[in-house]
Amino acid sequence: MQKTIEKIIKSHEGEKGSLIPILQDVQRECGYISEEAVAAIAKDVKISEHEIYGVATFYAQFRFTKPGDHLIKVCVGTACHVRGNSLNLMHIKKILGIDEGEITFDYRFGLETVNCLGACALAPLVTVDDEYYGNFSPIKLKKILSKYAKEKAGAEDEED
Amino acid sequence: MKKINSVFALEELRNSLIQAIDRQKTVVRVCSSTGCRASGAMQVIDVLGKELTRQGLDDKVEIKKVGCRGFCEKGPLMAVGPKNIFYQKLKPADIPEIVSETLANGIIIDRLLYEDPETKEKIRYESDIPFFKKQVRNVFGRTGKINPASIDDYIVEGGYTALCKALSSMTSQEIIEMISDSGLRGRGGGGFPTGAKWKFCRNVATDTKYVIANGDEGDPGAFMDRSLMEGDPHCILEGMIIGAYAIGASEGYVYVRAEYPLAVQHLSIAIKKAEEYGFLGKNILGSGFDFNIKIKMGAGAFVCGEETALMASIMGKRGMPRPRPPFPAVSGVWGRPTVINNVKTWANVSLIIKNGVDWFTSLGTEKSPGTTIFSVVGNVKNTGLVEVPMGTTFRDIIYGCGRGIQDDKALKAVQTGGPAGGCLPSELIDTPVDFDRLLEMGAMMGSGGMIVMDEDTCMVDIASYFLSFTQAESCGKCSPCRIGTKVMLDILERIKSGQGEEEDLDRLAELAVTIRNASLCGLGQTAPNPVLTTLRYFRDEYEAHIRDKSCPALVCKDLIKYVISEKCVGCGICKKKCPVGAINGKKKELHVIDQSLCVKCGTCYQVCPPKIGAVEKVTGFRKSEREMTNADY
């Protein structure tokens, strides 16, 4: 991981205002912003660690703990709200047994809310990783979850 | 690729591109924007390619992956041939038939056509569909028509001719005058005259200046900026290059939300191509003018749509606004003069330069010329993006393009301008919509979200929804916004839960005025708008929550309960589906909900078969309890 971070920092060398792009690249490559990453960035970009945390915690995009295998994002934009996504969110929370920003104990699913994904015509909208599920309803949820759970189980079988 | 270094070279390239078009080929345009992708457009395109090969039509048909046509709800969408036979809600299984019938033999497949919800008529061609018919697509003129990843497509459609015109035959002064004369106002929602902004910036004498395209479309419920960046990125770049030339900027940024990965991808391709062709870089079109554009990705902060916060974010800092003056036109990114405009404003610039002032002002109202784009979403039959002349009425947009309210319910309110805007009642739907009229009514244009709400929407809930959004997105720098919105939200939550007091309405109004007057930036100044407008137009609903402890729209959880009526046949579906096991009852007997266990998720209400309809939502039950206690005294 150290190497990846060094490589990312190097690719932004000489760029003005590079802190946010570096953090974005680190999160894309490593999944989250680790303490080690912050320390490495602080050293190379010459910004203090607390300043980096100041910037990183300001933006909703950055997370500081390891994410789950699959990230479920529930859109809480207006169009989705009007069409009942808050109810869906409640259901998802209940079924996964986690709150937003948390990860299931087996690291299989993480849950986040997002302000608007810009696909309002398909509201209410939920995404899992990069897959969009429009016109979402609690009835669809179980089917979708089992699809991802199966995928994982399938992969493990192959490893065996 | 040889760089284009003169107007003549561009014209030559364009002619050769037009000549190279194989007119024997049928063009099939499939939308591959986020909305349609979410409904499976990429699989459709994949199958279409394979099916064409299988049926031997490869050399007769061209598949074009185009940008958003705005009718995302009906996706994946396809438009076939020059007349745009319009197929909607496609599935991979429909493709073999489309190839063998429509593409091979010209037979239109009825089942895939759009059906008008009112007349039940099947409509064949895109231009005849009311959703499109009522629109004037200028800014969106090319999205849905061209492949956004192809600069050649853009050039064929007359792209970069405005840039040529500006660089070869106009002085920077003339460009600014033309933009001023057109009366173009900032399409990000504020409505500030674009020409005036440019003039300020041009008059500052310094070596480095910047231009920025604001694509940080944070308003929940609005997605036209996404659609434009994905579907026609070059028109934004062209506008920026012209603007940079006019004010003397050498560098530009496009600031895009990180939530829009496809927009980032298409803009990156567009910038690379524009550099290759010589529209960006050194000595653009042989004019001696140098200009470069970089992409900056947002990181999920709504406040970054505010210009000073956006610039802080570009500089790698916390995206917090600062007091103005100094205005960005004097001191912006890195302390240099900066012009920042919404992506739609930039797109309008190239159109105005190309088509002239008279063309632009022939549409719209006197003080708000041109067209505007709304994303009509919520409880409306046809949701999507519509571009209409400024001054079009709400009725034309909602009932004309949108074809009315879902399930033929009554329209209750229209919300424009996102969290900064206001909720307007149905009585105002014949008002022409432009910047000034919306402000008069207490709402605002914002970035163009238009949320249509039916009779089942609780206005107190909506006000608290928007306020919870702005409250969460408040950057915390100034206390009126940070603390004020929190206190207002607490009051609203209290009202929603049935704990509201009569004085709460005055408290809300007073706080709203203070927050509006004392906040540092637009976010705080406009945050009370949803509350103020709902108080102004829907006061009785607040009063019902406070006095009668009832939610007339049956939304606020603490004020409603679910009950099973006599109609229950005891089928047991609700009992089975109830997530908390709150429903009791024997098979074929009346079921009962245990109110102490019920979490009011509404599952029973949804699963009860419509022909039985035994589960009912009721409100105002606390009223009777209160009356009882009063009687006791």
Features:
heterodimer; A: about 160 residues; alpha+beta; Glutaredoxin; 2 domains; 4 strands; about 50% helix; B: about 625 residues; Rossmann fold; Ubiquitin-like (UB roll); 5 domains; four-stranded mixed sheet
Kindly describe this structure:
The complex is a heterodimer of chains A (160) and B (633). Chain A has helices at 2-11, 19-30, 35-45, 49-58, 78-82, 85-96, 138-159, and strands at 70-75, 109-114, 126-128, 131-133. Chain A is α+β, with helices and mostly antiparallel strands and 160 residues long. Chain A folds into two domains: 2-58, no CATH class; 70-159, Glutaredoxin (3-Layer(aba) Sandwich), CATH 3.40.30. Chain A has a four-stranded mixed β-sheet with strand order 2-1-3-4, with helices on one face. The radius of gyration of chain A is 18 Å and the shape is elongated. The model of chain A is unreliable at 154-160 (pLDDT under 50). Chain B has 633 residues and is of the alpha/beta class. Chain B folds into five domains: 21-128, Glutaredoxin; 151-175 and 195-350, NADH-ubiquinone oxidoreductase 51kDa subunit (Rossmann fold), CATH 3.40.50.11540; 371-457, Ubiquitin-like (UB roll), CATH 3.10.20.600; 460-548, Up-down Bundle (de novo design (two linked rop proteins)), CATH 1.20.1440; 557-632, Alpha-Beta Plaits, CATH 3.30.70.20. Chain B is built from 26 helices and 19 strands. In chain B, a hairpin with a 5-residue loop joins strand 13 (411-416) and strand 14. In chain B, helix 20 packs across helix 22. The longest helix of chain B is centred in the C-terminal third of the chain and has 18 residues, at 479-496. Residues 622-633 of chain B have low confidence and may be disordered. At the A-B interface, helix 2, helix 4, helix 5 and helix 6 of A face helix 2, strand 11, strand 15 and helix 18 of B.
